[in-house]
Amino acid sequence: MAVTNSYASGISVVIPTWNGRHLLAANLPYLAASISSSELETEIVVVDDASTDDTAAYLMEAFPDIKLVTCESNGGFAVAANRGIEAAQYDKVLLLNNDIRVAPGFLEPLLPYLEHPDTFAVATATVTPAGDKETRPHTWIFKQGVFREEWFPLSSRPSLAFGASGGHALFDHHKLDELGGFDEQFSPFYYEDTDLSYRAWKRGFSIYLEPGSRVIHEHQATIGSLSKNYVSVVRIRNKYLFMWKNLTDLRYLMSHLLWLPVNIGKDVVRRPVTILGVFWALARLPSVLSARRTERHRIKLGDKEILKKIRKGARDGIEGHAHH
For 70-131, what is the HEC assignment? Predict the structure, then answer.
């Protein structure tokens, strides 16, 4: 992606989809109704990732105003999302999963964040269709050579966030370009948005969670139709690729390498097939090390510094977008 692009002021909603015609049929009317009330220019970009359920034909007939991007082969989330980002014409990009249903007014609380030059993205909170299980603030901690999640109590205050989900977050389009979008080495799924978010933090940008913006997540995940063994293998591959690419503090890197045999052993004991994910990650080590070298020149914050900052902002919250 070119860094020199300039975009009109507005919001491009980008929805990657694979065999999700029924979800789009259920959720697009809510999205269209909600963004039609926005004072900003808007567009909806749907990226059909080589679906076999006639998604493209359905959208052209049922939603002719939508910008449809079609992929000739199924490349996975990172590839489809990048295609959508490239097709987006506005300076703000709202990435949504096809199983997300938006409510009226969900967009407005997000917009002030992107007025600040440090903001990379701001995520919505998600609730179930029953209205419970709201998104809690959380961060990642580094322990025994790997990242682990740490969760905090529900809060009505905005907070810092370790990552912005590719399924329900508003991004600064120029910064997406600056980071080169999602790293397609993580395709077809898992860790691509974690990698993108962590690279944004390392470059000195910030990511927020805005609990005043809520969307309904029906959890009809596309990957649910895939083999559990395959999904586990990809998850393990990408977990290690993420750490090998992004860990730069010497102490963290040494800890990761020292604990590596133990952590691989734990993964394999839980699900033996995941040893294939480790070998798959090793096969991609040259390309990951190349990406690592490229990224190192742009780093402004180290691992420990980032985790300390996010933990405080996730645990204690922030005063709101006006006080960033």
Answer: ECCCCCCHHHHHHHHHHHCCEEEEEEECCCEEECCCCCCCCHHHHHCCCEEEEEEEEECCCC
The model's pLDDT over 160-188, given as tens digits with 9 standing for 90+, comes to: 999 999 999 999 999 999 999 999 999 99
162 and 269 together in one domain? no
Q: The domain containing residue 199 runs over which residues?
A: 10-224+317-323
Angle at 158 between CA 121 and CA 211, to 5 degrees: 85
Quick check: 181 and 81 in contact, CB under 8 A? yes
Residue 29 in any domain: the answer is yes
Are 170 and 283 part of one and the same domain? no
Are 213 and 74 in a shared domain?
yes
Look at residue 44 and give its three-state secondary structure. strand
pTM assigned to the model: 0.94
What residues have CB less than 8 Å from 194, skipping those under 6 apart?
A: 162, 163, 242
CA separation, residue 28 to residues 46, 68, 101 (Å): 10, 13, 8
Q: Which of 73, 68, 93, 69 is nearest to 11 (CA)?
A: 93
Q: Is the peptide bond before 188 cis (omega within 30 degrees of 0)?
A: yes
Strands 90-96, 8-17: pairing kind: parallel
Q: Which residues pair with 43 in a beta bridge?
A: 12
Sorted by sequence, the CB contacts under 8 Å of residue 323 that are 6+ apart come out as none
Q: pLDDT, tens digit, for every residue of 72-96? A: 999 999 999 999 999 999 999 999 9
105, HSE (Cβ side, Cα atoms, 13 Å): 2
